[in-house]
Structure to design on (253 residues):
């Protein structure tokens, strides 16, 4: 456990110095540009547009950041032979991998918090009424990012090139968002397609369960609340990371 904590701490420090955090600057520019564009609209429409664009930007930039970090650890460091040094120390591979994972998602949490603070300040300045639902969105964005980080580790450990790791991680990110929407039209689809979609929903991360607007519309878990989705996200992360650890144990660098 101490080894995992130390690796996570090192990863967090390493990532905080990375240039990838410059994406936060792009986020700031995007939010303020959107605020200027929608400033001529009514206050309700303006606030809603800024909130939606801001949350979408936070999710996207966080996704790009963790994909870069995860593939760097799981694939690039192996290709550059820089992974040899930490693996020669008295630390188990699974501890190293989980330490890296926790360090990356902690980095993502800090990035989400920083960008979320800027967005919240702007919305407050615009007179928005921010409730618990708004702040819960950040938790669910973080859970999505944690899930795709685990997937990126697994994909990168199975990949032989940076391009394939990025492409497959991106495709899984997209698939996780659309599979639930496809199932809505199950009555209009062939039975074979419906079965395939259901199988993929067990394999790919089902991000539909983590979209808070769907909760507001009463489409998912109307009586159970948010906890089943949180439990699903955490369970998915653990399962995929253990699969990644199994691959990592047998991988030769």
């Amino acid at each position: 456990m101490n080894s995992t904590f130390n690796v996570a701490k090192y990863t967090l420090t390493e990532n905080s110095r990375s240039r990838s955090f410059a994406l936060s600057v792009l986020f700031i520019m995007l939010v303020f540009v959107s605020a200027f564009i929608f400033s001529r609209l009514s206050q309700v429409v303006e606030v809603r547009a800024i909130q939606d664009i801001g949350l979408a930007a936070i999710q996207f930039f966080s996704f790009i950041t963790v994909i870069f970090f995860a593939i760097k650890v799981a694939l690039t460091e192996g290709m550059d032979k820089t992974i040899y040094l930490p693996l020669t120390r008295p630390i188990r591979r699974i501890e190293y991998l989980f330490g890296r994972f926790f360090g990356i998602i902690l980095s993502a949490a800090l990035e989400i918090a920083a960008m979320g603070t800027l967005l919240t300040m702007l919305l407050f300045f615009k007179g928005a009424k921010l409730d618990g639902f708004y702040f819960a969105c950040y938790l669910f964005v973080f859970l999505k990012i944690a899930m795709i980080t685990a997937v990126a580790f697994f994909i990168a450990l199975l990949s032989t090139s940076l391009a394939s790791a990025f492409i497959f991680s991106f495709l899984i990110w997209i698939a996780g968002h659309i599979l639930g929407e496809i199932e809505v039209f199950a009555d209009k689809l062939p039975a074979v397609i419906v079965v395939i979609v259901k199988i993929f929903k067990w394999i790919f991360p089902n991000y539909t369960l983590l979209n808070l607007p769907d909760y507001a519309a009463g489409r998912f878990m109307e009586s159970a609340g948010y906890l089943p989705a949180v439990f699903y996200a955490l369970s998915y992360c653990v399962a995929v990371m253990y699969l990644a650890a199994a691959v990592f144990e047998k991988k030769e660098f």
Observations:
- The radius of gyration is 20 Å.
- Residues 2-250 form one domain.
- The chain has ten helices and no strands.
